[in-house]
Structure formats: C-alpha cells, structure tokens
Amino acid sequence: MPDRDREYVEFVEASGATLRRTAYLVCGDWHRADDVVQDALYKLYLAWPKVDRSGNPLAYARRIVVNAALDIGRRPWRREVSTDQPPERVHNDDLADTYAERDEVLSALLELAPRQRACVVLRYYEDLSLEQTAEVLDCSLGTVKSQASRGLETLRHTINRTRASGRLS
Known about the structure:
72% helix; 0% strand
C-alpha cells in the first residue's frame, strides 16, 4: 500500500468516529450521518494528495462533513417532516438522568435551523474556537457568534417548553 493511502487509512481510523458523531449531531439521524461521512470520506480521499499535512486534515474533513450534512438536509426527499408531537420513546426506568437529558438535548438540537445546529455542535460539542468554527463553516466570526447565540437561545426555549409541558401532563 502506498504511503499516501496508508496515511489516509490511518487518518480515517483515528477520526472516523469523531466525524460520524459530528455528522449525526448536525443532521440528527445516524443513517444519514453514515451516508454523509461516507460521501465526505470519498471526497477527502480524492483531495488527500492536496491536503496540507502540516495543516489540520481533521479541520478539512470536518468542513466536508458539515457541508455534506447541511446539503443533505436541503434535498427535498431528505427533509424531516415536522409534527406537533414528538415521536414516542420507550421509557426505561433503569436509564440514568444523564441519558434522559442527553435525549432531551438531541431532540432540541433537531429543532434548530441547520446552520445554527452546525454552529452549536462545532462550538459547544466539538469544542472548536470561534475561528475554527468559522473556518469549517466558511463564514465570518460574526455569523458564528450570531448563529450560535440564536441556536443556544432556541435550545433553552425548547428544553424549557418540553420540561414545562412534561410537568403539566
């Protein structure tokens, strides 16, 4: 196996799970996330000789994944259908509160606009800086700040509304 291919395989093995998690958090569906990552890794492989090894190939790959996740959500046959009722969940009394909170946050993330979701995921879940997030999304720092701020406000509102409706029922 040529060195270039070996480097690519090593990169994918080291970063694949991270890229898949990012794709899931941006698009909200594990199956779509798998498709997104597969498409992104194909594109990355084609560009691998050009990827600057002294730079950050993970940032480059993240950009491809986020763009692909945002693009897949724009396709009319892939759009989620919004309803006023969330899907029923299987409740298991053995689940810890942390799992319930995680599910609550993941559900709330799906209510965000795609760019807001991408900003929130990259900034607060992937722990990227403003500059890194702007680079991945190919936008200005101001856009990252405003989209992240609006996204967090929407998350707070959604979670508070969910919790209030849960107490009223």
